[in-house]
Specification:
By secondary structure, the chain is mainly beta. Helices cover about 15% and strands about 50% of the residues. The protein has a single domain (about 15-145), classed as Lipocalin (Beta Barrel), CATH 2.40.128. The chain contains 2 helices and 9 strands, in the order βββββααββββ.
C-alpha cells in the first residue's frame, strides 16, 4: 500500500507544472504567513495553502468549466471575494500567469468590485502574486516553478 500527501507527489509523476511559494495575508492589521503549492494541469489548477507546523489548511481547485471548488470551509468574506471573478476571467488570469508571463509581457491583472488579482514577472519561472480586496484583506507573495 502506498500513501502520500498531495503536496508530496514527485514531479516525475506530475504531468503539469508545479509552483511553490510563500504568501502573506494581511487582514485587520494582522499578518499571517502561509506556504502555497500550485499544480497546473491542462484541465485543472490545484492550489494548496498550508501553515508551517499546522499543515494543509485549504485546497482550492479551479476548472475552466466548473469554476472554483474549495475543500475546506472559508469565511463568507473570502468566498465573496473569490466569486468576484467569473470562470472566463480566472481562466485568462491563470493562463496568462502560468503560460505567458515574460520579461516583455510582465504583468497580468484583473479588477472587479474593489478586488484586484495580479501576477508580475520577477525572473525565469518566478513571479509575484497579489489578491487584494480593498475592504477585507490582501494576499501577496512569490511563486517559483519547481
Amino acid at each position: 500500500m502506498l500513501l502520500s500527501a498531495c503536496s508530496s507527489i514527485s514531479q516525475s509523476t506530475n504531468p503539469g507544472k508545479s509552483y511553490i511559494g510563500k504568501l502573506k495575508l494581511s487582514q485587520n492589521n494582522l499578518v499571517s504567513n502561509f506556504i502555497v503549492r500550485i499544480d497546473v494541469f491542462p484541465e485543472d489548477i490545484i492550489i494548496q495553502v498550508s501553515k508551517p507546523i499546522l499543515g494543509n489548511l485549504i485546497k482550492i481547485k479551479f476548472n475552466q468549466n466548473d469554476g472554483i471548488t474549495t475543500y475546506q470551509e472559508l469565511g463568507n468574506s473570502s468566498l465573496t471575494s473569490l466569486n468576484n471573478f467569473n470562470n472566463k476571467e480566472y481562466s485568462y488570469f491563470f493562463n496568462s500567469c502560468f503560460n505567458y508571463l515574460t520579461a516583455d509581457k510582465n504583468v497580468f491583472k484583473i479588477n472587479k468590485n474593489k478586488t484586484e488579482l495580479k501576477c508580475k514577472y520577477k525572473g525565469l519561472d518566478t513571479f509575484s502574486v497579489f489578491f487584494v480586496n480593498d475592504d477585507i484583506f490582501s494576499i501577496n507573495g512569490i511563486l517559483k516553478r519547481e
